Amino acid sequence: MNTTDFLTIASAIAPDRPAVIFEGKKLTYGQINERSNRLAHALAGFGVKKGDMVAILQVNCPQYLETYFAVAKLGAIFSPLNFRAKADELTYMLNYCEAKALFAGERYLDMVNGMRKDIPKVQQIISIDKKADHMLYYEDVLAKSSPDDVVADIGDNDVTILMFTAGTTGRPKGVPLTHNSFVSYMLTNVTPVDPEIEEVNLLTVPLYHVAGTQAVLAATYGGRTLAMMRQFEVKDWMKTVQETKANRAMLVPTMLKRVIDDPDFNKYNLSSLKVITYGAAPMPFEVIKKAIDVFPGVMFINAFGQTETASTITALGPDDHVITGTDAEKAKKLKRLQSSIGRPMDDVEVKIVDEHGKEVSRGEPGEIVARGPRVMSGYWKDAEKTAKAIRHGWLHTGDMGYMDDEGYIYLAGRGDDMIIRGGENISPEEVENILYAHPKIEEAAVIGIPDPDWGQEPKAVVVVKKGQNATPEEIIEFCRQRLSSFKRPRYVAFVDELPRTSTGKVLKRVLREHHGKADNK
Questions:
Q1: d(Cα 246, Cα 229) in Å, to the nearest integer?
Q2: Is 378 exposed, middle or buried (0-12, 13-18, 19+ CB in 10 A)?
Q3: Mean pLDDT lowest for which of 14-28, 322-336, 415-429, 441-455?
Q4: Which end of the chain has a smaller Cβ tally under 10 Å, C or N?
Q5: Cβ(444)–Cβ(436) under 8 Å?
Q6: What pLDDT is stored for residue 464 in this prediction?
Q7: What span, in angstroms and rounded, lies between the C-alpha atoms of 413 and 399?
Q8: Left (φ > 0), alpha (ψ -120 to 50) or beta: where does 363 sit?
């Protein structure tokens, strides 16, 4: 089975059921299937074949879903790009994956036009939202193509998606995920489409994020209706729940906090919600505690995973969010709610190991490692990073933790210096490389500091060159012009020198101890 079967089966069993609700419009499963067939034929006419790469730069929209399935039906590879990325970041990713075609949303057309000379492998650029000079128009492409089914030789272990994830070594890493990476999860954890059961899932997580992709494919496999939002906005989210009577939603902690803290929270009817899944970043205890109180009857699930694992590998289930029982049982559940990411999913193996890769005893800290059919086999065209991440068949997640006697895993921080802001991974080195380009900066290091809204914020600790003076504002502005908005430092501390080991490595632990507050000190 491959992911294209999800749409084929859903459109056969429930062809008239809405697959997507988007800004007041509906598209049925039958329509999505026909439109993806038309697009697949068009792409084939452009020379796209099995194994070729097709990228997209756009916020959430129905065309995103259609483009994925069109690419997948050809046995080609779909690469969703972070729409917050700057031109040089996008240029790197497009050249790295050697994309043959690029779909672009209206707000990105000018930037894409400016990149043309630097992305020579891209043979076709398709404008999604409107006609544009020197580009094909999405709807025109579909209108001229055949609606007939597309047949290709697709293997379960063929790569279907190449996602980019931040790494501590600067440039984004390409994570190839196979059809089986997603099929394995669906067959084990999702109820297949049923003509008698209808459900509405609200999607706000961006589709360049693996959690968004997992949500879309799970909804398609289950024949659910996706109420899709371009991007998250608090009042629009509550309005969409009310209007579509959404049953399920997935939120990162920052989003959930904004929803429950909004002054108009009680003005909306959110009673249709039955399940809220959260993840992608640590959940503050006070936030989930309040959410449980203000969403009575809603089942909460804490999902933990990575791009490299095709999303969820452990989950803290609904029962773990209900604090009942004896005093001892309540205390145990409260502890889990505060710091546990739950137990491993059925289709993956997870264990805790020491620095030598040996499994530790229950209760002892170590690194969380995983293996299974969903886990990537290696980074795209990067044997060195693959060798560091996958050892003896186990993916080393970089997350530290321990497992209790009942198999619950508790996080104990990162084993590297990755910064996670609102569910987005930020590479310290990438930001540091930008800082080093500033004419007044001699040395720079970037750390993550706690933030009640975003989980973490990047903070720059810099040494200015002799005879120079700089302000936090000018350094932040320098980064803003060169990095995605979420990556730029929010604070800057000036120091005479950076603390280093005897071999010259910056001691970020020391920096966090002395500069780990939300200020310019």
A1: 12
A2: middle
A3: 415-429
A4: C
A5: yes
A6: 94
A7: 6
A8: left
Cα dihedral across residues 412, 416, 420, 423: positive or negative: negative
Strand duo 25-28 + 53-57: pairing: unpaired
Q: Which residues contact 467 (CB under 8 A, 6 or more apart)?
A: none
Size of the chain in residues: 521
Q: What is the pairing mode between strands 394-403 and 409-414? A: antiparallel
Report the CATH superfamily, name and number, of domain 3-14+25-175.
ANL, N-terminal domain (3.40.50.12780)
Looking at domain 419-515, its CATH class is alpha beta
Give the domain ranges of the chain: 3-14+25-175, 419-515
pLDDT score of 19: 98
How many Cα atoms are found within 13 Å in the side-chain-facing hemisphere of 400?
Answer: 12
E strands, 83-149, where? Answer: 99-104, 124-127, 136-137
Gap between the Cα atoms of 130 and 483, Å rounded: 27
* pTM: predicted TM-score of the whole model, two decimal places: 0.84
Residues 6+ apart with CB under 8 A from 391: 357
What is the distance in angstroms between the CA of the first residue and the CA of the last residue of the chain?
Answer: 56
390: pLDDT strictly greater than 80: yes
The answer to whether the Cα torsion of 315, 316, 319, 325 is positive or negative is positive
CA 289 remoteness from chain centre: 24
Q: Which residues contact 297 (CB under 8 A, 6 or more apart)?
A: 274
pLDDT by residue (tens digit) across 158-179?
999 999 987 555 688 999 999 9
Q: Which residues pair with 228 in a beta bridge?
A: 203
Measured CA to CA, the distance from residue 413 to residue 308 in angstroms comes to 18
Distances (CA, A) of 236 to 117, 260, 293: 38, 14, 22
Q: What is the mean pLDDT of residues 432-456?
A: 90
Residue 489 sits at the vertex; the CA angle it makes with 484 and 492, to the nearest 5 degrees, is 160
Say yes or no to pLDDT of 466 above 60. Answer: yes
Report the distance separating Cα 328 and Cα 288, nearest Å.
21
Helix (H, G, I), strand (E, B) or coil at 119: coil
For 441: left if phi > 0, alpha if psi spans -120 to 50, otherwise beta; the answer is beta
Query: Could you tell me which of 124, 1, 101, 21 has the C-alpha nearest to residue 53?
Result: 101
